[in-house]
Automatic annotation (TrEMBL):
GO terms for biological process: DNA repair; DNA replication checkpoint signaling; replication fork arrest. Pfam families: HTH_TIMELESS. Coiled coil: none annotated. One of its GO terms (molecular function) is DNA binding. It comes from the Eukaryota. GO terms for cellular component: replication fork protection complex. This is TIM protein. InterPro entries: Timeless (IPR044998).
């Protein structure tokens, strides 16, 4: 590849470097940059998040996000994901 030197200047991640050195398509399914993808919010999860927010937003002295995380039916959501989704909604 005559233009490989340009790619060497713009590495994006260790997975991209590995793919460049071992050959394109060398990454197995579930490896590299795509493995940590956040699952999208379903409409049911969004509705549940809205309901939980309205339920806990008026509670004095309590962390609203912590209360929502404790009640969220889908495990594995992080505090950052919940906050980001609430802002988006």
């Amino acid at each position: 590849n005559k233009k490989a030197f340009v790619e060497l200047l713009f590495w994006k991640s260790p997975a991209a470097v590995r793919e460049m050195t071992e050959g394109y398509g060398s990454l197995q399914e579930g490896e590299g940059a795509g493995r940590g993808r956040i699952p999208p919010w379903t409409p049911q999860e969004e509705q549940e998040l809205r309901e939980l927010y309205w339920k806990y937003k008026e509670v004095e002295g309590e962390d609203v996000i912590a209360a929502i995380l404790a009640q969220l039916p889908t495990p594995g959501r992080t505090r950052r994901q919940v906050v980001k989704q609430l802002v988006r909604l």
